[in-house]
Write a structure and sequence with these properties.
The protein is α+β, with helices and mostly antiparallel strands. Helices cover about 30% and strands about 35% of the residues.
């Protein structure tokens, strides 16, 4: 069944929701668990944390946070605040632009949800910080396109909240 994926990459936590097509209409957005089960209920959000692993890819969320003590130089957080900065962030021995890290987090969420749903979304919308101007939005869109996610709608956080009413 077709669905649209909404992703919020916040400064400290990342969450997602899907809306399904029901004929010519869309259902209300429903949160998607991104973490493992914590007690009787699923974990809806994960920490906005990435860890670069040996093959050059990234793990995210709790898996990345668990690496923080042993491999702190490979773990990165607070990258949403750095989108558009002239200086990239140091991840291990490599400098990575913050917008690439945001795009990587979006890609990770999209992969997790696609695996659970059995197929990728029809479309992705990403809620971004309301203070981001056109330059930051463009940088993230370009980073998403480099990862093969070229058709993504960027929505300011306050608008995303208002639309979910």
């Amino acid at each position: 069944m077709p669905y649209v994926l909404g992703i919020h990459v916040g400064a400290t936590a990342t969450s997602a929701a899907i809306a399904r097509r029901e004929g010519s209409r869309w259902s209300a957005a429903v949160p998607v668990p991104l973490g493992g089960a914590a007690g009787p209920s699923p974990v809806l959000s994960v920490p906005t944390v990435l860890c670069r692993v040996q093959d050059g890819s990234f793990v995210a969320g709790e898996a990345a946070r668990r690496q923080e003590l042993a491999y702190h130089e490979w773990v990165v957080r607070d990258f949403t605040k750095r989108v558009g900065d002239d200086l990239p962030m140091l991840v291990g021995s490599e400098f990575v632009p913050a917008q690439r890290l945001v795009a990587t987090m979006v890609e990770w969420v999209a992969d997790v949800v696609a695996n659970r749903q059995g197929h990728p979304p029809e479309h992705i919308a990403v809620a971004h910080d309301a203070a981001w101007g056109p330059h930051r939005i463009l940088l993230v869109q370009q980073a998403l396109a480099q990862l093969g996610l070229g058709d993504v709608t960027m929505v300011p956080e306050p608008l995303a909240v208002a639309l979910d009413d």
